[in-house]
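Narrative of accomplishments. A recurring question from our advisory board has been how the design workflow behaves on a single, concrete structure rather than in aggregate. To address it, we present the structure tokens for one chain from the evaluation set, followed by the sequence designed for it. No filtering or post-editing was applied between the two.
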């Protein structure tokens, strides 16, 4: 895993011992590796650009701290946004609006006007009524809005029901037959220009076939569209190694996506989030109490479902291991060490008053004690970004490591912060 290694019984993020960082910044803490973000971005960019002209638009929703956006912007990355707030972040981070694709499901007038003012690359449009509205607002502002129609290709991405987006029963996109009608009425929309066709089938998609199918359908549809179309946007969703799954290499995704797009003479936009950020971040928590019942051992930690909701929401698997341990992990994430030692089954649980606040059940782990710190891996994507202060737990801090230096890129919230926006 880029950026995280076990050395001498201890977890390191780049050149720093994770335990030492947490001793200084406190627990729970999100810790990110700058190198991991940039390496994964560059790997993706290279895999796709080797085949076709590609704009990588990092999906801001998955990990949106402006420090991270700034690093990616400086590396040349574009951005996929889903709200005015995300565009605000991108601009604050120095991102280039001309590399921004706006994929919001129910964009408000305020958001559309802001995006038009900033001059974004593309509005990914989800309905004819939205197209009418963008056309109206662009007209009022004396602008022509670049748009892509988001197609619902009715392709099964074979992922979790809650993260499938490309089936006809999902709220996303426009079905082909209807999209054809919209295209035939385009000449009545004077203030938009159809620049692209967009599709996003789900996340994570751990095989290439659903992409091949969706791209094939979209490229067939494009044959019936005006030749103003420059881009095919195939969304995000590339898989991530959380545990033992087989995830296609970026080159394999590129082959089935970029190859046909190149053959059709179009440029490509991709919107990866998880595959860049996921393994660039961990969540560290501290064991508060060990409770052994007749049937189970519980490690109760200070991080909870409010910090990382994925296990509670999607039954997601996250690899968990102590930050300091004589036993080494046996996981594909750490091929450099050989798993060993005495392990015991235990549940790692958080402090929230919900039965779903459980990170793992009956997981084989080294024996832990009160005060030990544990890392929850692959938490960089949809970790902090989906966190909340539920149960009035202040949200954790975020730390970015660069070589042998670290920076707190978001302060831990305080109890005062919890009530700051409330009026007495
Ligand atoms: N583009 C669009 C239009 C999207 O809806 C998404 C994700 C992406 C790109 C980025 O997908 P990625 O490359 O990150 O897989 N919270 C869930 C995932 C929700 C994904 C939402 N849309 C999770 O924690 O698994």
């Amino acid at each position: 895993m880029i950026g995280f290694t076990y050395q001498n019984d201890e977890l390191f993020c780049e050149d720093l011992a994770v335990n030492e960082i947490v001793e200084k910044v406190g627990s729970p803490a999100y810790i990110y590796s700058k190198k991991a973000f940039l390496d994964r971005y560059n790997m993706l960019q290279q895999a796709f650009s080797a085949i076709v002209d590609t704009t990588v638009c990092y999906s801001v929703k998955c990990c949106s701290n402006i420090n991270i956006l700034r690093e990616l912007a400086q590396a040349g990355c574009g951005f996929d946004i889903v709200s005015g707030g995300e565009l605000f972040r991108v601009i604050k981070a120095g991102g280039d609006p001309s590399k921004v694709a706006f994929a919001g499901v129910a964009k408000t007038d305020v958001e559309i006007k802001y995006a038009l003012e900033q001059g974004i690359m593309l509005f990914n449009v989800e309905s004819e009524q939205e197209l009418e509205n963008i056309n109206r607002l662009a007209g009022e502002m004396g602008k022509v809005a670049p748009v892509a129609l988001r197609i619902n290709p009715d392709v099964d991405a074979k992922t979790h029901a809650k993260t499938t987006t490309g089936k006809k029963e999902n709220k996303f996109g426009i079905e082909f037959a209807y999209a054809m009608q919209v295209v035939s009425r385009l000449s009545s929309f004077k203030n938009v220009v159809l620049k692209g066709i967009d599709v996003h089938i789900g996340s994570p998609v751990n095989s290439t076939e659903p992409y091949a199918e969706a791209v094939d359908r979209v490229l067939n549809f494009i044959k019936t569209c005006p030749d103003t179309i420059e881009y095919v946007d195939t969304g995000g969703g590339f898989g991530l190694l959380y545990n033992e799954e087989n995830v296609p290499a970026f080159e394999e995704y590129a082959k089935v996506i970029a190859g046909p797009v190149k053959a059709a003479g179009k440029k490509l936009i991709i919107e990866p989030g998880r595959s860049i950020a996921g393994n660039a971040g961990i969540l560290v928590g501290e064991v508060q109490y060990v409770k052994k019942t007749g049937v189970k051992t519980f490690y109760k930690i200070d991080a909870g479902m409010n910090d990382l909701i994925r296990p509670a929401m999607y039954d997601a698997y996250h690899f968990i291991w102590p930050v300091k341990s004589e036993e080494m992990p046996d996981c594909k994430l750490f091929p450099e060490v050989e798993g060993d030692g005495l392990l015991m089954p235990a549940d790692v649980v958080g402090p929230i008053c919900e039965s779903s606040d459980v990170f793992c059940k009956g997981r084989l782990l080294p024996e832990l004690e009160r005060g030990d710190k544990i890392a929850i891996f692959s938490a960089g994507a949809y970790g902090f970004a989906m966190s909340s202060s539920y149960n009035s737990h202040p949200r954790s801090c975020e730390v970015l490591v660069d070589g042998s230096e670290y920076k707190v890129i978001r302060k831990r919230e305080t109890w005062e912060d919890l009530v700051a926006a409330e009026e007495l």
